[in-house]
Design a protein that fits this description.
Order of helices and strands: EHEHEHEHEHEEHEE
Shape: globular
CATH topology of the largest domain: Rossmann fold
Number of domains: 2
Number of helices: 6
Helix content: 25-40%
Largest sheet: 7 strands, mixed
Structural class: alpha/beta
Bound molecules: glycinamide ribonucleotide
CATH class of the largest domain: Alpha Beta
Radius of gyration: 16 Å
Strand content: 25-35%
Length: about 200
């Protein structure tokens, strides 16, 4: 089987990255993780990459004159590795027009809420504050907005009496680790069709 090549962009811990790598190594997987890139030198995800044997790079946005130049460098790195799909996993920056233009409809993100509720930072805290009974996680295509692109897959997580930020984060994260590899797999199976704001999952 010809496997799709993915790169993961991250800024922190990298537990979704880890889950994606593990899924890529399971029997029958249709994708391979070729590269991890972090915008932060202290991201734990970079050390995880070393342990997992995945090539990893720190690209410091501050060493470029502007976002366009930074993203051009990312684009070069990604294209040099023949990356088909870019997966944001705890990458805490907005993707700009340069990277979006180089990977149109080929950038995914995971967000720890049921979008369009609670976009942006601290989604789990927003959910707790709002007093919702159900939150969850969402995998979506990335567009120019904040967590606003077409939704591919969602998993609901019920809030329990006594939940605090840590317990809720943990339960949502467990679902993120399952949902993200499933969405990537659907992408490489050619089953995702963007139809306006929606994504049709073809049989
Ligand atoms: C995850 O919960 C992810 O959904 C969230 O950051 C965490 C990263 O954890 N992303 C966002 O909030 C993006 N808006 P990880 O580094 O362990 O994968």
């Amino acid at each position: 089987m010809n496997k799709g090549n993915i790169a993961v962009l991250l800024s922190g811990r990298g537990s979704n990255f880890d889950a994606i790598v593990r899924a890529s190594r399971a029997v029958g997987s249709n994708f391979t993780v070729r590269l991890a890139i972090s915008d932060r030198s202290d991201a734990a995800g970079l050390k995880k990459a070393a342990r997992l044997g995945i090539p990893a790079r720190h690209v410091d946005p501050r060493s470029f004159p502007d976002k366009a130049a930074y993203e051009s460098r990312l684009g070069e790195l990604l294209e040099s590795q023949r990356i088909d799909l870019v997966c944001l996993a705890g990458y805490m920056r907005l993707v700009g027009p340069v990277l979006l233009g180089r990977f149109p409809d080929r950038i995914l993100n995971i967000h720890p809420a049921l979008l369009p509720c609670f976009p942006g930072l601290d989604a789990q805290e927003q959910a707790l504050r709002a007093g919702v009974k159900v939150s969850g996680c969402t995998v979506h295509f990335v567009d120019a907005g904040t967590d606003s692109g077409p939704i591919i897959a969602q998993k609901a997580v019920a809030l329990r009496p006594g939940d605090d930020l840590e317990t809720l984060k943990r339960r949502i994260l467990r679902q993120e680790h399952r949902l993200y590899p499933q969405a990537i797999s659907l992408f490489f199976a050619g089953r995702l069709q963007i139809d306006g704001r929606a994504v049709i999952i073809k049989p």
